[in-house]
Amino acid sequence: MNNILICGSIAYDTIMVFEDYFKDHILPDQIHKLSVSFYVPELKKNFGGTAGNIAYNLRLLNSAPIIMATAGDDFSLYSDRLSKLEIVQDYIRIIPGTHTAQAFITTDLDDNQITAFHPGAMSQSHKNTISTISEDICLAVIAPDGKDGMINHSNECHEANIPILFDPGQGLPMFNQEELLTFIEQASYIAVNDYEAQVLSKTANLSIENISKKVTALIITKGSEGSLIYTNNKIIKIDPFPADKIIDPTGCGDAYRSGLTYGIVNKLSWEKTGLLASIMGGIKIQSQGGQNHTSSIKDIENYFGESLR
Fold first, then answer.
1. Is the whole-model pTM more than 0.85?
2. Going by DSSP bridges, is the β-strand pair 11-17/42-48 parallel, antiparallel, or unpaired?
3. Domain containing 148: what range?
4. At a CB cut-off of 8 Å and minimum separation 6, what does 228 contact?
């Protein structure tokens, strides 16, 4: 069994739609005393978080994800969902007296977003330790989580000789140069989007090319322009998946990473790994939320062109 460990966040995403434009209700010359209220008749609560999203997509690929995360007293609804998906929850720690991490996202008719994020139990992810895991792990994903947790889990995986996919995402600004250089040295693979790649390069004071030489592969996603895989002193360009409709990009990066991790642990070529990752991201973008797409393994195989079982 190719067990993939995902160290990252479990979160609820509450998405609200303001049926107007923020620009018509926020006065530029009054932002020093801002007080606004948006009427949001449409509200949806979705399951999210980097670990939850990646694990969900790996289950679509009939893979075996194991989540290591922290959650709050309100986790039961999410727990029921993970049970139905047959995702291992043995390493999700409940932090009493806290909420599960939550994002409150309000979107206007121009697709502008105002987001408030409450980390809750996520900030105590360092209370989890890799040493408690009894399963054999073939790859660990270090995804956005509490800062100390990300550092500790990367150190522990490195010491245990577990290959690491470093996926800093929106957590990237938390780390200084020394910390990022340590992550780069410990990682076998790094996955970032185009903007994050520039931040990583600037903060670590290393060029993209030099970062790529320190890992087996550096993967940079570029949205509608596809992605690039730097490996073995060459750059492999991966075309975007031609989605029939674009509904919501939330969680597309996590879906992409599910294809990436599947390809790595199943020893697919980088061309095939990139193709599968692109397919997973393209399937996701056609649904609202990070975990509401339901493509079967047969559908995914039809896009991919060969069996994944």
1. yes
2. antiparallel
3. 3-10+49-100+123-304
4. 219, 220, 222, 235, 236, 237, 238
Helix (H/G/I), strand (E/B), else coil: 272: helix
Number of domains into which the chain is organized: 1
Phi, psi of 142 (to 5 degrees): -100, 95
Task: Quote the CA–CA distance of 87 and 49 in Å, as a whole number.
Answer: 15
Q: Which residues have CB under 8 Å from 120's CB, separation 6+?
A: 72, 95, 98, 99, 100, 101, 102
Distance, in Å, from the CA atom of 85 to the CA atom of 60, rounded to the nearest integer, reads: 9
pLDDT tens digit sequence for 273-302: 999 999 999 999 999 889 999 999 999 999
pLDDT reported for residue 26: 86
**How far is residue 178's CA from residue 207's CA, in Å, rounded to a whole number?**
15
Residue 107 counted as domain residue: no
Q: pLDDT value at position 110?
A: 85
